[in-house]
């Protein structure tokens, strides 16, 4: 294979490298847009993961562009710098993968879930006017009711209706559908069977990262 062939292979793999960076930026941006809307309910941990994805994607894209420039102008120093940075990035990805493997262990997941549940229970307990729209939207989006179950609403100070739940708990949302729990649990509630809102949010975030 001649110099031209080597350069073509280099450019080809560098394009793939650039595409992976752009993909990470896109995924991170989409996730951040979603998580920033539910941050008041689930905490800021999920949005921080999205920020990390964006940062990694930007770094990869910039390094890839450096490789392209070095290849086109035949700058051996720039290409060598690109290769060195690429090796560092690969090592960091390996370390990050190992960290995520450890993070996904049972103990770590329980700790994360405990933190998110605690935040969700606190928001539901207060149910302040400024956060009601977010809470209702999250419950509608994830088809859940409460942090652990619909009974969380019976202890909500801001809700003040121990025998009812917000209409956003209903699978089929209609005005007043959450006011009669004894009737609604037969037809409407999506979380009556122990579905946990926070576990659902966390599970979906991991699936998107994978």
UniProtKB/TrEMBL annotation:
Transmembrane stretches, start-end: 12-33, 45-67, 79-103
Main location class: membrane
Annotated localization: Membrane
Pfam families xrefs: Tetraspanin
Disulfide bonds, paired cysteine numbers: 144-177
InterPro entries for the chain: Tetraspanin/Peripherin (IPR018499), Tetraspanin_animals (IPR000301), Tetraspanin_EC2_sf (IPR008952)
Keywords from the UniProt entry: Disulfide bond, Membrane, Transmembrane, Transmembrane helix
Membrane topology of this protein: Multi-pass membrane protein
Gene Ontology CC terms, in alphabetical order: plasma membrane
The organism's place on the tree of life at top rank: Eukaryota
PANTHER family membership: TETRASPANIN
Family as reported in the entry's similarity comment: Belongs to the tetraspanin (TM4SF) family.
Descriptive protein name: Tetraspanin
Source organism (scientific name): Echeneis naucrates (Live sharksucker)
